[in-house]
Amino acid sequence: MNPLQNITSIRLKIFIIIAVSITFAFLAFDLIMLKHQQNIYIEDLMFNTHSVADTILKSLEQDMMADNTTSINKTLFAIGKQEIIKELRIYNHKGEVRSSMIPDEVGHVQFSRAKSRQCTICHKNGNGPNRDKNMLTYNVDFKDTCITYVIVPIQNQGRCSSAACHAHSPSQKILGFLNMGVCRKRLQASIHKSQVQILLVSLLFILLLPGLIMLFLKKHVSQPLRQLLKSTRQITKGDLDCKVNIVSRDEVGQLALSFNKMLERLVAFKTEIEGWNEELEERVNRKTAQLKEAQKQIIQAEKMSSLGRLAAVIAHEINNPISGLIVFINLLQKTMDKESFSEADRMKVIKRLGIMETEAKRCGHIVSELLSFSRAEHKMVDCNISEIIVRSVSILKFKTKDKQIGLNLEIEPDIPVIRCDPGKVQQLIMNLVQNAIDALPQGGEIDISASYLKEKEQLKLVVHDNGIGIPSEFLPHIFEPFYSSKDNGQSVGIGLFVVYGVVHQHNGVIDVQSTEGEGTTFTILLPA
Question: Which domain holds residue 461?
Fold first, then answer.
């Protein structure tokens, strides 16, 4: 798979979202748990130290009532041997150490009323930490020292103020303080160990849960989606043999089931469409063959129609030389009937025979041109377009002569040969010229030009007349079969349709430009 697809895959996106969510969730959980655990440890420490301090005070109560300093010191010294207790002393309300686990401290003043934390129990001139009416705690942390100090006030009780040994005034609320220093190293080690364990468990879950989720997504989401994606790509390439094999009851399984059903429908539609295409292709081929045959018949019919229109003019033209032949034959018969045949008569006979030969050749030429035009030719040969133009014009020159129409030819020399069906090209030219003759009044002009476009390797044939032109509303339809703009009943409307068909059979292009009242120009381009 493309690396870019791995980066943009849905599985990776889900993994990132889940991993980030789980990470932040566990981090938040760890912070809350660590803070809560630390608070629990501290509360337990405070409770235990308060309990120990209260126990010490109760155990020293009789000795303090008797003011037995020696016994108090021994008791404090014995209690101070415990590893967790680092300092243990009793102050009076003036800050003087009365008893201590360290004998050298006894009798020394260790705090003043202005600066001491002890005074904040009764006086609100301080804001020491963890202060309440029964106990004051604070921490002292140095490089190798981690001690929590607990200060418990020694309350003045009724029996203490009325004792004979050292009576205190009933108005004095605080007689002194018990100051105990507890080492927190073991507590800190326990907290640290617990924090490490919580972090390790959280890290394990952070690494394990996304991995398990990734495996689940890969098996139940990513792989099925990839299989569906692969199958859809095969379908886009036309391969419908790509049924997916996904069996599950979740949404992915339902999607795979729907995909397979869709694929079955596509295969059925493809088979049906292929059958329709084969049937349609067969019908099209059959109709195309019929159209080609009909087109051949139309072209041949147009030839015959053109011959019919020319028959009267050509018959009249042939009648003239035949009449001359008959006259000369009669003259020859009269000359041959003479008893004496002079040299002058012989010369007249020779001259008359020459005229008769010329007229007979003229008739033969006209007939041969008609035969070559009416013959159905279906072969492509190399032809000289100049010869085809001259031959076509020679057939129609009799009709132009009757209407006194000028027929102008402009053919460039050295035009290369073209590969064409000469009969069809001749029919094309004759149809265009015949249409021009029909559109021209008495004394009009027809210009026929042929040239070679060297850069395009094309033959350009132009037929122009200065006749009545074609109305603009008729121009889009002139190449349609059986469409005619003539209302005299002389045309069935297939001449230009045949011209259009011949041009396209030769891979050419035809264009018409016409202005009503000014004339029409047909331009034909054929490959040379």
Answer: 378-528
Q: Give DSSP secondary structure letters for 423-469.
A: HHHHHHHHHHHHHHHHH--TT-EEEEEEEEETTTTEEEEEEEE-SS-
CATH of the domain at 161: 3.30.450.20
pLDDT > 90? residue 84: no
Domain count, the chain: 2
- pLDDT tens track for 304-357: 666 665 565 566 556 656 766 776 677 777 777 766 667 777 787 777 777 677
Please, what's the largest Cα pairwise distance for the chain?
213
Whether the CA torsion 126, 127, 130, 131 is positive or negative: it is: positive
Are 117 and 126 a contacting pair, CB within 8 Å?
yes
Amino acid (1-letter code) at residue 307: L
Residue 212, both tokens: 């398990």
Give domain status of residue 113, yes or no: yes
Residue 300 in any domain: the answer is: no
CA distance 67 to 70: 9
* Main-chain dihedrals φ then ψ at residue 149, nearest 5 degrees: -95, 135
State the chain's mean pLDDT as an integer. Answer: 76
Asked whether residue 234 is assigned to any structural domain, the reply reads no
Q: Which domain-ending residue is among 161, 192, 223? A: 192
- The answer to whether position 15 is within a domain reads yes
Nearest alpha-carbon partner for 177 in 159, 196, 198, 153: 153
User: What are the backbone angles phi and psi of residue 178, rounded to the nearest 5°?
Assistant: -100, 120
Arithmetic mean of pLDDT, 176-188: 78
Residue 402 belongs to domain with CATH number: 3.30.565.10
91-105, 248-262, 447-461: which is most confident: 447-461
pLDDT of residue 117: 63
Among residues 170, 192, 214, the one where a domain terminates is 192
Q: pLDDT confidence of 492, banded at 50, 70, 90?
A: very low
